[in-house]
Amino acid sequence: MKLLWSPIVDSIYWPKVGRRRSWIIPVQTVSGFTLIFLGSVIDKLMLPETLGANLYTITYVFFLLVLFCATQDIAVDGWALTIISKQALSYASTAQTIGLNTGYFLSFTVFLAFNSPDFANKYFRSTPSDEGVITLGQYMTYAGYMFLVITFVVAFFVPEDPPFYDKEKSEEEIELSEIERDVHSAGNVVQSHSSFSTDHETLGHSKFGALVEVYKKMWYVVQLKNVKLFIVILLTSKIAFQANEAATSLKLLEKGFSREDLAITVLIDFPFEIFFGYYAGRWSTGDEPLKPWMYGYLGRVLAAFMGQVLVWCFPKSGKINSVYFCFVILQNLFGSFMSTVQFVSLCAFHTRIADPAIGGTYMTTLNTLSNMGGQWPKIIVMFLIDKFTKARCVPEDDHSPLEISNPFEDKEFYNCYPSDNKKLCLSNGGKCKIFQDGYYFTNMACIIIGLVLYFTWTRRTAKHLQSLPIGAWRVNREKSSLSV
């Protein structure tokens, strides 16, 4: 849906306000008031006795809220291409990383901790209570007012075009002939002067014509050979570490690692994420913007292997000592560092190659495809883990799942790996014992496939793509000028 919506955000705007501010200001204002409204009613809507009756209302309101946030995301992606100077453009990904991690940290780690009655009773109260320090409604109200404050600042203190914009535009026009010669020699598509249209120019003679042209232009972009190769990289480059990132934490919890300890690792990880994001941005400013991404790829593969070792070496007693806990933290920090390096490097490359004339659509398309590359393998990974995991319901005092006299052998919950069967097993006095864990096979399969792909095709292709001139990623406005 975001891919279909982004050209509308790119092409329809009020020139006096600016292409990006025309969307950001009203959308964030409506989002802020929506959050404030939700904050006043959400606690009542979420009560167990009324949740069923209010489910459709909650769904509709949150659908609109997600739509508003997606619209804002598209506009901000496009705005980053012009509001940040050409020399500092790679830091757009750093800002995105810091913003995403800060929001995630506040909305998950901090909120869930202060919303927990156990956490509040342990650290803040002398008299226990059944409620946390902060309710969901209070947090949403706070978030709504923050939206409005930030929107006020954007509306009255942040111009659409920064002071350096006109100077950089003239420099781009001077360099255009050199780009055209480079692209022509590479056999790629040459971008015309229209690709450098500013946010004060429209993409067509009418709003509808501008909208149609954005759709057409983005379609032509994805037909370029270079873009097709890049799309394949985006869709396949996360296979290697999907089993680790989707299942390692779950396996640790399954073996007895406490949720509180896992939350501490996330808490420790947050300040490092900010630090990593800044230096990854500096690392991505050179002539090889995908070089950090390639190092990050190998680092995440190593983190996936380290995760498998941690699960394999989990103490059989179930008691976590300080040494093992430190190794969990180190593995988590190392994996987060490599993930941040890849994310910042990739986003820096996106901002480098995206055409400012359709910046929101271009960035949204690349980011969406990158996100898809991290989602579709998870379905297969979780299926394979379930497929290759064998668990049997055995008596509580039994040490062998293959015992012939097992009283649960003929029961429907004998294969107890599915969660419903596991509950039946426990309620009937048994325990669910895993004697073949599909996680190990699936994780190693992902690592091997990822390494083979990397050394046979991905690395070579990434080096080729980062060496291409900017014009190789853009198209002429006229269809007749497109050659794939």
UniProtKB/TrEMBL annotation:
Superkingdom as given in the UniProt entry: Eukaryota
GO cellular component labels: membrane
Keyword Membrane assigned: yes
Membrane topology, from the record: Multi-pass membrane protein
Record's protein name: Unnamed protein product
Subcellular location(s) per record: Membrane
Keywords (A to Z) from UniProt: Membrane, Transmembrane, Transmembrane helix
Listed GO biological process terms: acetyl-CoA transmembrane transport
Predominant location: membrane
Parts of the chain that traverse the membrane: 23-42, 54-75, 95-115, 136-158, 218-241, 262-281, 293-314, 323-344, 438-457
InterPro entries: AcetylCoA_trans_1-like, AmpG_permease/AT-1, MFS_trans_sf
A Gene Ontology molecular function term of the record: acetyl-CoA transmembrane transporter activity
